[in-house]
From TrEMBL, chains A, B:
Enzyme Commission identifier(s): 4.2.1.93
Stretches assigned to the YjeF C-terminal domain: 55-364
Name under which the protein is recorded: ATP-dependent (S)-NAD(P)H-hydrate dehydratase
Any single Pfam family the record assigns to this protein: Carb_kinase
Domain of life per record: Eukaryota
InterPro entries for the chain: CARKD, Ribokinase-like
Family: Belongs to the NnrD/CARKD family.
Binding sites annotated in the UniProt record for (6S)-NADPHX: G168, N221, V222, N223, E224, Y225, K226, R227, D290
PANTHER family linked to this entry: ATP-DEPENDENT (S)-NAD(P)H-HYDRATE DEHYDRATASE, ATP-DEPENDENT (S)-NAD(P)H-HYDRATE DEHYDRATASE FAMILY MEMBER
Enzyme's top EC category: lyase
Cofactor: Mg(2+)
Length: 368, 368
């Protein structure tokens, strides 16, 4: 349901039209925004479950209108912390997905071994070979090296709208110690953080890293969710009360947002629970979670821009930008996965899904 | 001589030469093409026998129906042991073929030199740079290094549904010693093992590695088969009794399954012999054997899932999962090779055939 302090669309639209002080472009953009949102109403009625998010309309609402006056970076600057000797595909999938959705700049911070490979996947990414694994660091140098690694990432921190921590991170103890410090720095700088993959392995054992941070999003799959529930709620996963349990989990971690991936994605910030159930694809090839984390990073950044542009007076619900980012990211991945599967069937790979991100976004929310 | 309906090559050529209505060269080339096709079909007819497998129906029977409730990994996790300083294409072909057919995860365990290259071919693969060759290991360190290499692979072993040992493995003595240990570990964990390429060079001289292991498949080409026959049966290849000789060979190695690659693929587990003779492609570009080993790995995994789900009560024959995997893999490669050749003719490469795996599977067994 779309409301703004009891005003209906027309009155909001008129108030925008009659606004004498605003420059025409601003009014026009505001109108275009409202008109996009207006497209929603009929579909809202169709929503069956009270939990089901109005995903496509939320995606439309938070995706910015193109503005020729904007410059590089304003549509989003995202950084992925991940990529080690073993894993190079996951951080690439997350970082390139962010660009394919519309981010202007996408960085990857990975180990020295992983950097040339990730760079070779695409010239579009900015890849920083700054992380280190135990095998390349002597015990004596660890403190010094750790400070250097964290400083290397920190000097970029302020530029990023969102951090994705975990795709292809691996589980090297020294590397994870450094990443813990990077998470603390990001939190200090109030940068939103999406934790996925091996980042969840780290955080589940160190909940203090994200606990109570409203700009943190955890995106566990079946097994990662099981570990999280056991650790935080000290019980087993209860699918009879999936919504209630997810709500308690998110609340227990101090209001972080948890996106539980599954046949339906369930999302909660400890206040509300929403689900995204649009049919995606039955293929479960590895890498789809990385597309999701990169997508959520972009949509979360856009949602925060929208909220600050509207001084918090959002005409969509929910109003928590982390919830909005998760809902839009989940909806887009499902749409792209279904388009890729239509075309490739059993041979669908993650790169095929990434190739469908642009068309999916255009289908839901045309650029112009 | 190639004969059809009593017409021989010479008379067909003459009829072409005497043809008045078309330019002689065009007619001649057309006739030569027809003769090639007719020739092959003629030979296929001669091969069709009680031995010919009902390949397409077997492929349909073992390929799982999609289930949205399944999660990542349940459609198959395959590992290829191969890739060294000299060879990087072969393990890539095997591993990517497994994904293109429908496996969820595909790993490669290769040498440190080979890893960045194999990774760069595709972000979809998980590539572990863990194998070592003699040139990089001092004599003193060999025992310690060997234990480390085997342990690095072994810690992943339980996760895999099937191992492919050999594509691009090379023949370095130290590396092959480590791979012998890896084969022993896989056998201990009852993981199916497909032995191809340089893996066959290793196994032919160390038959004890696979002898008596019912989950082992050997996939020799003409020369590898010749060596195997000489070593095991102590005689030359006898094409007059190809089926009988293959049966004895597989029985002699204690009931492993042998897929003899040729114009018709012959497959035996020492109990029965089956052939797959669908027409594939006349191109013999290197790498097709790697597609086959990766494909057999996936179909074998699916066949085992089907058998355990039905508690052994299969309505298809044969019922040995290694036979089923070989038959389905052979049929799919032949279909993909023929589609690729239709499109690319003389310039058909292995990557073109891999690109046709999905369409071939869809033609035989539509996803939905």
């Amino acid at each position: 349901m779309i409301v703004k302090h009891g005003m209906n669309y027309l009155s909001v639209l008129n108030s925008a039209r009659n606004h004498k002080l605003a420059p025409p472009l601003a009014v026009l953009r505001r109108q275009q925004f409202l008109i996009r949102v207006l497209g929603v109403r009929g579909e809202n009625i169709m929503q069956e479950s009270k939990f089901e998010a109005d995903a496509d309309n939320i995606l439309r609402a938070i995706t910015p209108v193109f503005d020729p006056n904007r410059h590089k970076g304003q549509a989003g600057k995202v950084a992925v912390i991940g990529g080690c000797r073993e894993y190079t595909g996951a951080p690439y999938f997350a970082a390139i997905s962010a660009l394919k959705i519309g981010a202007d700049l996408s960085h990857v911070f990975c180990t020295k071994d992983a950097a040339p490979v990730i760079k070779s996947y695409s010239p579009e990414l900015i890849v920083h070979p700054v992380l280190e694994e135990s095998y390349s660091v002597g015990d004596r140098d660890k403190d010094h090296m750790s400070r250097r690694v964290v400083a290397e990432v920190d000097k970029w921190m302020e530029r990023f709208d969102c951090l994705v921590v975990g795709p292809g991170l691996g589980r090297d103890p020294f590397l994870l110690d450094c990443v813990s410090e990077i998470i603390k720095q990001a939190r200090q700088a109030s940068i939103p953080i999406i934790i996925d993959g091996d980042g969840l392995f780290l955080v589940t054992d160190n909940l203090g890293l994200v606990s109570g941070y409203p700009l943190a999003i955890l995106t566990p799959n079946v097994n990662e969710y099981k570990r999280l529930v056991q650790k935080v709620l000290n019980c087993e996963v209860n699918d009879q009360d999936a919504h209630g349990q997810l709500l308690s989990l998110a609340k227990q971690i101090g209001g972080v947002t948890v996106l539980r991936k599954g046949m339906s994605d369930l999302i909660s910030d400890g206040e509300i629970v929403k689900s995204v159930s649009n049919y995606g694809s039955p293929r479960r090839c590895g890498g789809q979670g990385d597309i999701l984390s990169g997508s959520v990073a972009v949509f979360l950044s856009w949602a925060r821009q929208l909220i600050s542009a509207n001084e918090g007076n959002l005409i969509i619900s929910p109003t928590n930008p982390t919830m909005l980012g998760c809902i839009a990211g989940s909806a887009l991945l499902r749409k792209a996965a279904s388009l890729a599967f239509e075309d490739r069937k059993r041979s669908t790979l993650t790169t095929d899904i990434i190739e469908c991100l642009g068309r999916s976004l255009e289908d839901i929310c045309p650029a112009c």
